């Protein structure tokens, strides 16, 4: 799969990791060897993935092969979005000025807080009784 015209980038969100391989083509997007519409199933997640492509006017110009694992479906969609945005910036640096103000190039570093001992969850405490 190593060719000069293939761009490889990685996106992360929570525990989800997405690798994408972007090359010139006809707009075919596959996630784990399935169509992105079949894999994601929700319109709001389609919009999340395609937002950077639409903003930079690159519809039907690139074929994208995506492998994603870990996390939930929403985290995976956000990881894919970040990876696509990074790839579009590698293609043309002018895309950076379009994507950066929308926050599409920023990695969301928020992860689940660990559970503390002596508590039910990370912050939830047992019920306190005065008497």
Tally of individual helices? 4
Radius of gyration: 19 Å
Structural category is alpha+beta
What proportion of the residues is helical, as a percent range?
A: 25-40%
Please report which band the strand proportion falls in: under 5%, 5-15%, 15-25%, 25-35%, 35-45% or over 45%.
Answer: 15-25%
Please tell me what the overall shape is.
elongated
Distance between the termini: 69 Å
Across the major sheet, the strand order is: 1-2-5-3-4
Strand count, sense and barrel status of the largest sheet are:
5 strands, mixed
State mean pLDDT (0 to 100 scale).
92
Could you state the order of secondary-structure elements as H and E? EEEEHHEHH
- List the uncertain runs: none
Oligomer: single chain
The number of strands is 5
Structural features, described:
- It is a single chain.
- Helix 2 (43-55) packs parallel to helix 3.
- The chain is elongated and about 70 Å long.
- The protein has a five-stranded mixed sheet.
- The mean pLDDT is 92.
- It is α+β, with helices and mostly antiparallel strands and 131 residues long.
- The protein has helices at 36-40, 43-55, 73-91, 94-99, and strands at residues 7-13, 16-24, 29-31, 34-35, 62-69.
- Helices cover 33% and strands 22% of the residues.
